[in-house]
Specification:
Layout lengths: L2 E5 L4 H12 L3 E6 L7 H9 L7 E5 L5 H8 L6 E4 L6 H6 L1 H22 L4 E6 L23 H20 L3 E6 L2 E2 L8 H10 L3 E5 L5 E2 L2 E2 H10 L6 E6 L5 E2 H12 L4 E5 L14 H7 L7 H14 L1 H4 L7
Parallel strand pairs: 1-2, 1-4, 2-3, 4-5, 5-6, 6-11, 7-10, 8-13
Antiparallel strand pairs: 9-12
Helix pairs in contact: 1-8, 3-5, 5-6, 7-9, 7-11, 9-11
Length: 325
């Protein structure tokens, strides 16, 4: 029975990856520091889904602290490590870049070296579409220049990618880097647009929109992302692979879709475009198809239905989740 270490296990993507691994019969040791980057109630809700599964073990650990991390490796041999622990979010990274580098760079380095010293056969690193910046043409291919990130968040993820390559080159480690594109779905992050828009529209609160709404995002449903992440555990040497929905959609169109499904209209509070925000994202997913046999299965429309259904079901506490910058 395969055994995996999953960092960021209480996170939006991490919890879904844990579910996929468990459904495949694997044993999962999940770690997370349950920080307050957003309301911990969401993280606790996700972890509660595993409380009756004895194949899932949770340890509260900060990957940026090397001594703490050693305890995650002390008793277990792993078939692979999936690093989803991260400080995420573009705009927040502008105000506090230091905490992003602690987790996203030092944390990744700590994990890579722990895997090297124990000869763990596979390492999967989560990265971001934000690395593609302003100067690349879309759809973005993995060999595009990523040397001009717009935010400290994207820069920290780029630094983690380069560390992954150096550990592959020096130590022969099998490493796959996955660049995720605008992940959404039930129990999503409250700093991301879909969670916010659903809450703001349903509760009759002003919907804060940065820019004119014509910016585009390649929305990708969380189940599809989790499935692609698990597929990336196969041996590949060193690869960087996009996981995206392959369908960029304007933000104003997404707002309209949510309004229609909720039967309510948004009160839009339009603000200036945030300088670190990407104007558009669009993944070229040919490499994921070829190497992982992966394509997204869930449409934006179906994914929105699932996210809205979750919000309405959990509204008694989800309506009070803070969603301000």
């Amino acid at each position: 029975m395969a055994r995996y270490l999953l960092t960021g296990a209480a996170g939006f993507i991490g919890a879904q990856v844990a579910r996929h691994l468990l459904d495949l019969g694997s044993i999962v040791v999940g770690i997370d520091n349950i920080n307050d980057s957003y309301d911990p109630r969401l993280k606790e809700w996700r972890l509660d889904q595993f409380q009756n599964d004895d194949r899932f073990t949770f340890k509260r650990i900060n990957i940026a602290k090397r001594d703490e991390l050693e305890s995650a490796f002390s008793d277990d041999d792993y078939d692979g490590v999936i690093n989803l622990a991260a400080r995420a979010g573009v705009r927040q990274s502008v105000s506090d870049p230091w905490v992003y580098y602690e987790t996203n760079v030092i944390g990744a380095l700590n994990l890579l070296d722990a895997c090297r010293s124990r000869s763990i056969p596979k390492f999967v690193q989560a990265s971001t579409s934000s690395l593609y910046g302003l100067h690349n043409s879309s759809p973005y291919k993995e060999d595009a220049d990523t040397s001009r990130p717009l935010s400290p968040y994207a820069a920290s993820k780029g630094a983690a990618e380069t560390l992954c390559h150096s550990y592959h080159y020096l130590h022969g480690m099998d490493i796959t880097v996955l660049r995720y594109f605008t992940v959404f779905g039930p129990a999503g992050r409250p700093d991301m647009s879909i969670f916010r828009f659903i809450q703001w529209i349903f509760e009759g609160r002003p919907l804060v929109l940065y820019g004119d709404g014509r910016q585009e995002r390649d929305f990708t449903f969380v189940d599809d992302i989790a499935r692609g992440t698990v597929a990336a555990l196969r041996p590949l040497g060193f690869e960087v692979i996009n996981l995206g929905g392959d369908r960029p959609v304007k933000m104003m169109d997404v707002i309209s879709m949510i309004e229609e499904r909720l039967g309510k209209s948004a009160e839009i509070d339009q603000r200036q475009t945030a300088p670190a925000d990407m104007p558009s994202t669009w993944a070229d997913i040919h490499k994921a198809q070829r190497l992982l046999d992966w394509r997204p299965d869930v449409s934006l429309e179906a994914g929105l239905e699932a996210a809205i259904s979750w919000y309405l079901q959990e509204r008694d506490w989800a309506e009070s989740i803070p969603t301000t910058d």
